[in-house]
Amino acid sequence: MSSNVEAPAIQRRGLMLVLSSPSGAGKTTLSRQLLENDSHVQLSVSCTTRAKRPGEKDGVDYKFIDTPSFRGMIERGEFLEHARVFDHYYGTPRAPVEAALQGGRDMLFDIDWQGTQQLKEKGREDLVTVFILPPSTRDLEKRLITRAQDSPDIVARRMAKAADEMSHWAEYDYVVINRDIATSLIQIKSILTAERLKRERQQGLESFVKALREGR
């Protein structure tokens, strides 16, 4: 005979979803659309020493700080990961990420392979990594030129670096070839759904099943 007492609730610890790619492969666009489509995903706002680009907002796109302040945060161990890319520093503050995960919120990271390696060392059980590839090198170069955010010299440097960045694809859990933004977004959302349902991320599942077996 079943009881009127409800089975214990299941809560979920948040996860860290990393999207990485060479510049121009579409990860920033995919990140923004994922945030717009899923209210349970929160962007991890990185600190950087580079200047703001047109349209960027401090505290929304990045936390823009000077180099001495950034180095001070490194010395105090306040970053989950940090790296120097194209003469500027980038890093993920530890405190807001840990608070979000404890609260069951998923954190989205737009970082490179170096940062991803550091996250693996500090929180592998919470980490889900996705590498975004362009459909072709020609398409990648076209996107970099079309977005008109960088000088021709920077575009050339980014293209030269892209081959090295793409060589790290096999270090990621999933790979998405971004031929079409809409299709790629569906694929990333599918990955996120499956990872949220993993047994080890559902806290209280053992008690829930025990209660079901006892007829509660």
Question: Can you tell me about this structure?
Answer:
This protein has 216 residues and is an alpha/beta fold. The chain has one domain: P-loop containing nucleotide triphosphate hydrolases (Rossmann fold). It contains eight helices and eleven strands. The chain has helices at 27-37, 67-75, 94-102, 113-123, 137-147, 152-166, 181-196, 205-213, and strands at 11-12, 16-20, 41-43, 47-48, 63-64, 79-85, 88-93, 106-110, 127-133, 174-177, 202-203. A five-stranded parallel sheet has the order 3-8-2-9-10, sandwiched between helices. A four-stranded mixed sheet has the order 5-4-7-6. A two-stranded antiparallel sheet has the order 1-11. The protein is globular and about 70 Å long. The N and C termini lie close together (9 Å).
Task: Give the SSE map.
Layout: E1 11-12, E2 16-20, H1 27-37, E3 41-43, E4 47-48, E5 63-64, H2 67-75, E6 79-85, E7 88-93, H3 94-102, E8 106-110, H4 113-123, E9 127-133, H5 137-147, H6 152-166, E10 174-177, H7 181-196, E11 202-203, H8 205-213
Parallel strand pairs: 2-8, 2-9, 3-8, 4-5, 9-10
Antiparallel strand pairs: 1-11, 4-7, 6-7
